[in-house]
Automatic annotation (TrEMBL):
GO CC aspect terms: plasma membrane
Bilayer-crossing regions: 6-24, 45-64, 70-93, 114-140, 160-181, 193-212
This protein's UniProt keywords: Cell membrane, Membrane, Transmembrane, Transmembrane helix
Membrane protein topology class: Multi-pass membrane protein
Protein name: Threonine/homoserine/homoserine lactone efflux protein
MF (Gene Ontology): amino acid transmembrane transporter activity
Length: 215
């Protein structure tokens, strides 16, 4: 029996959360789109490799840190979940208040950057974005019960699962870069729908978590 697998309901809910998080524009998406438009799909895929590698490191560090906290103290883990719920509510508020950011510089450089350097840029952008690791440190615990004897394994699974979900979406993003940028920039309403979807989903997670802890 694979004890590291969460319930089907948790997996489905988490998958939806991962998709909403992915489609909300941020530094990783901006880099992939910009590199694709300025240097072609090879540059876009190089950026994808870099941001994905960075995301793997970030999610695993988050899962490792939360797992260590759980092993040290169930009470501390529970406090982290409450803090995480409050953080998710703040993210929901910020999404509605300020909206999503998409910065794409599609100017073609005089000389294309080597693919390995583009990949390194992707790693650097992802790893130097503290919001990513902060998000996962507070986000992953929402899908695991502190009393679950297999909580640590499930945290590792969920961390990797996000990368599995995001990778094919990233590939599709690079392949359709010109259309994606056009749609997002010509249709600000699409951006607002994404913002409200992000806010609604994570606001619901936060309220559910606070309600459970309050019992």
């Amino acid at each position: 029996m694979m004890t590291f697998l969460p319930s089907t309901t948790i997996i489905l809910t988490y998958t939806l959360a991962c998709i909403v998080l992915f489609v909300t524009p941020g530094p990783d998406m901006s880099l992939m789109l910009a590199k694709t438009l300025s240097g072609g799909r090879r540059q876009g895929f190089a950026a994808l490799v870099g941001t994905t590698a960075g995301c793997c490191v970030q999610t695993m560090l988050a899962a490792l840190g939360v797992s260590a906290l759980l092993a040290a103290s169930v009470t501390a883990f529970t406090i982290l979940k409450i803090v995480g719920a409050l953080y998710l509510m703040w993210l929901a508020f910020e999404a509605i208040r300020h909206g999503s950011a998409l910065s794409v510089d599609a100017k073609r450089p005089a000389k294309p950057m080597p693919l390995w350097r583009t990949a390194l840029v992707g790693v650097g952008i992802n790893l130097t974005n503290p919001k990513v690791v902060l998000f996962f440190v507070t986000f992953l615990p929402q899908f695991v019960e502190a009393s679950d004897p297999h909580a640590s394994a499930k945290l590792w699974f969920l961390g990797l699962y996000f990368v599995v979900v995001a990778t094919p979406l990233s590939i599709a993003l690079v392949l359709a870069a010109d259309r994606v940028v056009g749609a997002l920039k010509r249709r600000p309403r699409v951006m607002r729908v994404i913002d409200y979807g992000f806010a609604s989903l994570f606001g619901a997670f936060a309220l559910k978590m606070l309600t459970v802890q309050g019992r």
